[in-house]
Amino acid sequence: SRFSIGGVIRLAFLPGRRFSILFDEDIFRLADPANLDAGAEFNFNRIDHRGRLSFIGRPGGGRLSLLVGFRNELLWFEGDELTLTRNNRMVNWLFHETKWRFFPKSALVFNYSFDHTYYISCCAETGRGRNDDNYAHRIQGGYRGQFREKFTISALAGWGYGYYRDDSDGPDFNSFIGDVSFTYYPTLRSYVTVSGYRAFADSLLGNYFVDNGARLGGGHEFRWRMIARLGFGVAGRTYHGLPRPGSGDAAIDSYEGRNAPALQRKDTLVMVDAKLEQPLGRIWALALGYNLLIDAADFRTQFVQPMPFLDHAGFVKHWVMLFGAVRI
């Protein structure tokens, strides 16, 4: 077990007006042991920063909503080992969303995002398992709105393209992405949500990973204003473009397991999250959260440096977080 700490800021200027500004900031120092055998210098202790600035315009009568924004992310590992520092990265995003409300509670949605991932501290030469800078485009369109009296639906589909220009072995991502969710409100204080998604993202392991998953969640607000949330999810994750043993990473001798010859790794993720939030007066609130992540994989990596050992993929992680919030 390790201690982590962080902060979250959510600011909205002129919310709901013809022109609004949103600012979000999440910054955490996350402590994460590598495994039971690794020394402290190999721990995955890291700084994780994610900031976003958004501008929203609602011209005319408000049926049309235009959002543009910029997001910056920084992932910085505290260790000095090359296996850690090569993962230090900065991501800059530009994103846009157009929403046209053609009924009072229904809208057509179009969004586009572009991000550039830059690995700050990585080696320049091949053969050391380097992570490559890359560019990613995502474009989606669909519908969001109310369906009958107690149902809402969100359905977006589109295409994603991840380009790894400096990786001669590839691969690049070029495929379908999307998500769909249905929410049912049995009462004014309760909801149940079912969703499914397909998404891709840059990966510290290989080039990128693709998630195909589903999620079930719900929440309820009690009469004493306590809010309870519970969620469960499962996803199939495939890592693409693992370093080629020897020529791509001299520390790796071979892979064993499903899809190893294709330089791919397939994992099954099981996720559980629960949260209790209690407002205290007008501006204060306390919350207690719990997250469980199970990663199951039939995959093994045979390392030859710095000493020969066989690494078995998969892990189980538990997080317990205590939050204190001030609303102004």
Task: Write up this protein.
This protein has 328 residues and is an all-beta fold. The chain is 1% helix and 66% strand. The protein is built from one helix and 18 strands. It has one helix at residues 82-85; strands spanning 5-13, 19-30, 46-57, 64-77, 89-103, 106-119, 134-147, 151-163, 173-187, 190-202, 208-221, 227-240, 252-257, 264-280, 284-297, 299-303, 309-312, 315-326. The strands form two sheets. Strands 1-2-3-4-5-6-7-8-9-10-11-12-14-15-18 form a 15-stranded antiparallel beta sheet, with no helix packed on it. It is globular. It starts with a strand and ends with a strand.
Could you give a short description of this structure?
This protein has 328 residues and is mainly beta.
Which helices and strands occur, and which strands form pairs?
Elements: E1 5-13, E2 19-30, E3 46-57, E4 64-77, H1 82-85, E5 89-103, E6 106-119, E7 134-147, E8 151-163, E9 173-187, E10 190-202, E11 208-221, E12 227-240, E13 252-257, E14 264-280, E15 284-297, E16 299-303, E17 309-312, E18 315-326
Antiparallel strand pairs: 1-2, 2-3, 3-4, 4-5, 5-6, 6-7, 7-8, 8-9, 9-10, 10-11, 11-12, 12-14, 13-16, 14-15, 15-18, 16-17
